[in-house]
């Protein structure tokens, strides 16, 4: 392609005046343009507390100190001492940190929105009322109201143009990246309130429900999907502490039977994503093996600068009973619940959620495409092949 024409196409793409080409940006450059990024204009995230940045505090109770102690210096709506993986994803994509959809204070949705909320699951009936179908419904309402407001602001008689700086652009919904990180609570809740075989038997319904959510978003114009599978739930400190049987342990001390159920969910998820790629002709779907990335960190903890014991976590306590992070108890004159002095040495922040240091390690390993199928970094996700 003539350099001047190519430059004009890229400028138009950046300004949002034309849609993404049917081929990748690198293909438009005549091949070999591996350095070209997708420049997603917006990001929409669906998930649980692994990527919730303020949904639960906005809807219910505030997340208490010492959450946020490492980076923000105060609670930031995240169940973590600092950044979540979704924050590092935003940095890689060169968009601002996403605002929680439910948060009404200081929010901007110009570059996307975060529908994730702590405790959320794919199916209803878990820890949170904001299961995946609700999050998708919120997005559909968000898209409809945004489009309406944007059109009002651009009507001839409008005088409220300054509001435009904080709302999404309707033309960018089909160019945005749609991220999913959800399923942990479906399994974790099942392990605690039913039997593992019942959880395993529920996986097909979880996969069907997830598939329906993706197809709904596709009907709304979503085209680019970045999907995390679920992590090794049997390696969460609370999973280990609540399961005492030494016969049900792997080489890293994790609960093997729970990890096997996690892997079975992941096998079925990957199979369904392949089918969805063939069913949805314009979709570009990338599957991220979060399980393998997290398990690799756990297995190499000591050599990566973390404490070796996977049961140890920084915030909260467990002494026959557990004290949630942010709370304190005095037992026989001893105060329990204070955070550790150096969260960066711990993979687990509070027994359920990963520390900022662990999140950064994981982000560095997944965002470059090392755990992606197809093997593309997140800023080139638009180049994923179509399966149809």
UniProtKB/TrEMBL annotation:
<dbReference type="Pfam" id="PF00657">
    <property type="entry name" value="Lipase_GDSL"/>
</dbReference>
<keyword id="KW-0378">Hydrolase</keyword>
<keyword id="KW-0325">Glycoprotein</keyword>
<dbReference type="GO" id="GO:0016788">
    <property type="term" value="F:hydrolase activity, acting on ester bonds"/>
</dbReference>
<dbReference type="InterPro" id="IPR001087">
    <property type="entry name" value="GDSL"/>
</dbReference>
<protein>
    <submittedName>
        <fullName>GDSL esterase/lipase At3g27950-like isoform X1</fullName>
    </submittedName>
</protein>
<dbReference type="InterPro" id="IPR035669">
    <property type="entry name" value="SGNH_plant_lipase-like"/>
</dbReference>
<comment type="similarity">
    <text>Belongs to the 'GDSL' lipolytic enzyme family.</text>
</comment>
<feature type="signal peptide">
    <location>
        <begin position="1"/>
        <end position="27"/>
    </location>
</feature>
<keyword id="KW-0732">Signal</keyword>
<dbReference type="InterPro" id="IPR036514">
    <property type="entry name" value="SGNH_hydro_sf"/>
</dbReference>
């Amino acid at each position: 392609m003539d350099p001047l024409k190519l430059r004009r196409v890229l400028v138009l793409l950046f300004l949002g005046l034309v849609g993404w080409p049917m081929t990748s940006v690198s293909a438009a450059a005549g091949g070999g343009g591996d350095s070209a990024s997708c420049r997603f204009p917006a990001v929409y995230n669906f998930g649980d507390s692994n990527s919730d940045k303020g949904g639960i505090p906005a809807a219910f109770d505030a997340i208490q100190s010492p959450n946020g102690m490492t980076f923000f210096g105060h609670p930031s709506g995240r169940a973590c001492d600092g950044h979540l993986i979704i924050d590092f994803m935003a940095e890689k994509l060169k968009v601002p940190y996403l605002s929680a959809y439910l948060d009404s204070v200081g929010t901007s949705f110009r570059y996307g929105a975060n529908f994730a909320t702590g405790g959320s699951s794919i199916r209803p009936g878990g820890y949170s009322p904001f299961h995946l179908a609700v999050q998708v419904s919120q997005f559909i309402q968000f898209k409809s109201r945004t489009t309406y407001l944007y059109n009002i602001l651009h009507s001839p008689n409008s005088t409220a143009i300054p509001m435009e700086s904080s709302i999404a652009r309707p033309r960018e919904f089909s160019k945005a990246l749609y991220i999913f990180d959800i399923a942990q609570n479906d399994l974790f809740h099942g392990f605690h309130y039913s039997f593992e075989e019942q959880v395993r038997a529920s996986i097909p319904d979880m996969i069907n429900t997830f598939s329906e959510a993706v197809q709904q978003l596709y009907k709304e114009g979503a085209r680019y999907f970045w999907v995390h599978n679920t992590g090794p739930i049997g390696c969460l400190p609370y999973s280990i502490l609540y399961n005492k049987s030494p016969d049900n342990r792997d080489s890293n001390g994790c609960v093997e039977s729970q990890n096997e159920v996690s892997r079975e969910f992941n096998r079925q998820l990957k199979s369904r994503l392949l089918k969805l790629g063939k069913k949805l002709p314009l979709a570009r779907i990338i599957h991220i093996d979060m399980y393998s990335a997290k398990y690799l960190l756990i297995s190499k903890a000591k050599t990566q600068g973390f404490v070796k014991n996977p049961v140890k976590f920084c915030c909260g306590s467990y002494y026959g009973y557990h004290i949630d992070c942010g709370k304190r108890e005095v037992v026989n004159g001893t105060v329990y619940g204070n955070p550790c002095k150096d969260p960066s040495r711990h993979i687990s922040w509070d027994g359920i959620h990963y520390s900022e240091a662990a999140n950064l390690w994981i982000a560095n390993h997944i965002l470059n495409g090392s755990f992606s199928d197809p093997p593309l970094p997140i800023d080139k996700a638009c180049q994923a092949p179509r399966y149809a």
